[in-house]
Amino acid sequence: MDPDSELEFDMPGMLRAYNTGHADRFDGTETVPPSSDGGPANGVASKDVVLDPAAGISARLYLPAGVEPSRRLPVVLFIHGGAFMVHTAASPLYYIYAGSLTAAVPALVVSADYRLALENRLPATYDDAFTALKAAGTAPRPRPSPGSLHTGWTEEGEGQPPNSSGSHIKYCI
Description:
Residues 137-173 are annotated as: Disordered. It is built from three helices and seven strands.
């Protein structure tokens, strides 16, 4: 860290922000890898995809177990919470939630990631979420193939369960 940086903001246990734009995060840094063969709790498969390589925007897709190849699935766009500053689509809390939602509906859940504040000023978060929404609405729509996560996007629309900054982002886009 820059020796000339000064502490600008301290949220104990969560993060420290410095006047240089650097942030030290203490919460929301743990991640869970995707599971292409289905998670042990619910059989839901997950896969990470890049939506915009230039901006570094990605999403994690969740596919329920036992989907018939001819079945079209509704799409749920999920945007994680975390006060705009912590967590990712790969955080354990959201991995468990998105997997449970996928299995219960069943639906294709797109858990969008976004660039975090403080390093990225608003409206970057909203722009990233809008990129995920456009990707969900314009992606090719092939049918799911057995044993793969190459699944169809549908025209069914999106949903967003309430969740902190994620709900606010969804409302704004």
